[in-house]
Amino acid sequence: MIDYFELYKTCLKINAERHPDQTYDFMKMMNNEDIVVSEISKGTDSRLLVLATFEVLDNLIDDGLIKARKIITKTEDPTYFFNGVSTTGYQYLKSLEDPLFGEKLKSALKDEGVPMTPNAITKFIARLTL
Known about the structure:
Elements: H1 4-17, H2 23-30, H3 34-41, H4 46-62, E1 66-71, E2 79-85, H5 87-97, H6 99-111, H7 118-129
Antiparallel strand pairs: 1-2
């Protein structure tokens, strides 16, 4: 099972620190990140990991944490054009960097029986930080 919490944090962090312009840049930056290397070494299918990453990006955009637009084309995958991280995105990232916050979030998800999915993580982060 993919560690969505780490994937979420990594996607937000890459946008904040490395400023990708579009999907290709972003995915290239993701290739050497610990979450990707770890998941691949555990045997996670690379296509599943890509789809999970796109789901996380969609949530980050929908929740206003990153400034980006998604374009659906005739290709298999969407194209994203990034334009930075919002102020709220930086606040979330700051919270996510605190190990105690991460444990608090995971505990809250477990206590309520909520799966560790991108949507659940987004909702709980909002509840715990706002």
